[in-house]
DNA sequence: GAGATTATGTCAGTCAATGACAGATGACAA
DNA sequence: TTGTCATCTGTCATTGACTGACATAATCTC
């Protein structure tokens, strides 16, 4: 990896860190792009070359997490049912976050704290999920051998799992990296609730009828 | 109702109609507040006294629909299980839309068309749902006699139903009022899918275990 | 080290959104 | 009808997010 790429990555992370620190300190609305750029000693114009909007920098860590999730999901064995594959992929993501780079985990937790505190970001985080939803739907449909356009099932399965991640991650008001554990516990509770509410085979469209 | 109130309501509807027409014609981003205000012959400042943002005017019809839904839900009998109560409340809302004021139905359909065409509005429509979600969760929790803070079930039930409405209303690219029928059909399909996927009694936390 | 790429800074500009104040309009009582 | 009050509206000024254009500076390739 060349110097140019390393420098870009360093600037990107510096912008995220500066933004999160300012958001936590003075609040999201009260922080301006000029201040974020100034803290990293970069022009405001450059900020927008890294992030398309003020929201995007705040949501960058969860957005990265979502990418990791998609990558993990595509690596799950094909014969694993869709819902179990998503649950296991999410467990992998969390584990990597807990055992990997501590800075990355801190960014994720801080980002969640900022999002929980700011309604505008809370809303934006959902937009993020929904924007990427079609990629998940496509992967789920592939596993089911379904047509994502015609069949409602892939969208349903994806939507239910998205709901569970929301139940796990949102409204945690996290303060430190230890809250990652709390999120993991809540996620497992949500998954367990879903598993006892849904009929076996529901995510494959093969529900045994009680005739 | 006094003249002042009637005038306000007329201006509000005129702003919505002008905005929807412009959005459909030139696109959401390409339309400015000045143009919307100009079409109704009010000052831009007045626009913001009716709607807090450009998004809000586009989302006004679905937002009104959500209010109707909450009203219908609170009027469902208490002994009706939460999920059935929500499904029936939604059916009522759609029926009122189809049999009531044709202008109101047209606004709803046009609004959905604009939302489907504009990613920013699509995202914002989700924010709308999530903002109001807690009110739904509270109502569901009341019906279950659950604590909405501790118990995950009310959030789960509300979230699943929210998912179904999304499946019914989104990506319809509606062109006319007749599309209301299409939405209703899709919603029923989604509800049917949920009902055969979920165990009886799931929304009351009383799932018969297969021991 | 020369030349091609790519990143950055500067500048000007658009547009959404807000606060402050003054004037206009409908509500209401005498 | 008229005067008074509350409320609605227009005008003005301002902030801050975001974008396009162009010049400069850094890095990469050979």
Descriptive overview:
The structure is a homodimer of 211-residue chains. Chain A has 211 residues and is mostly helical. The first copy, chain A, has two domains: 1-51, Homeodomain-like (Arc Repressor Mutant, subunit A, Orthogonal Bundle); 53-204, Tetracycline Repressor, domain 2. Chain A has nine helices and no strands. The radius of gyration of chain A is 19 Å and the shape is elongated. At the A-B interface, α7, α8 and α9 of A face α7, α8 and α9 of B. The first copy, chain A, binds a DNA duplex (30 and 30 nucleotides) through residues 2-4, 7-8, 32-34, 42-46, 48-49, 52-54.
Radius of gyration of chain A: 19 Å
Oligomer: homodimer
Shape of chain A: elongated
CATH homolog superfamily of the largest domain in chain A = Tetracycline Repressor, domain 2
Named CATH topology of the largest domain in chain A: Tetracycline Repressor, domain 2
Helix count, DSSP H or I runs of 4 or more residues of chain A: 9
Low-confidence stretches of chain A: none
Chain pair sharing the greatest interface: A-B, 27 and 27 residues
The N- and C-terminal alpha carbons of chain A lie at a distance of 62 Å
Question: Portion of residues in helices of chain A?
Answer: over 70%
Count of beta strands of chain A: 0
Strand content of chain A: under 5%
> Could you state the order of secondary-structure elements of chain A as H and E?
HHHHHHHHH
CATH class of the largest domain in chain A: Mainly Alpha
Average pLDDT over all residues of chain A: 95
Largest sheet of chain A: none
Q: Please, how many domains of chain A?
A: 2
């Amino acid at each position: 990896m060349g110097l140019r790429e390393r420098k870009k990555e360093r600037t990107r992370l510096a912008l995220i860190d500066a933004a999160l620190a300012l958001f936590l300190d003075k609040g999201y609305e009260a922080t301006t792009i000029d201040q974020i750029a100034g803290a990293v000693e970069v022009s405001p114009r450059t900020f927008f070359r890294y992030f398309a909007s003020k929201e995007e920098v705040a949501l960058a860590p969860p957005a990265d997490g979502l990418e990791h999730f998609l990558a993990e999901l595509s690596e799950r064995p094909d014969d694993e049912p869709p819902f179990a594959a998503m649950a296991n992929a999410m467990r992998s993501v969390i584990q990597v976050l807990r055992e990997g780079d501590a800075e990355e985990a801190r960014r994720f937790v801080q980002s969640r704290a900022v999002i929980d505190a700011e309604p505008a970001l809370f809303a934006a985080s959902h937009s993020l999920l929904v924007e990427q939803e079609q990629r998940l739907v496509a992967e789920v449909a592939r596993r089911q051998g379904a047509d994502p356009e015609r069949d409602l099932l892939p969208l349903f399965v994806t939507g239910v799992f998205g709901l569970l991640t929301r139940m796990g991650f949102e409204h945690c008001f996290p303060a430190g990296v230890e809250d990652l554990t709390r999120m993991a516990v809540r996620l497992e509770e949500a998954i367990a609730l879903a598993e006892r509410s849904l009929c076996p085979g529901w995510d494959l469209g093969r529900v045994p009828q009680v005739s």
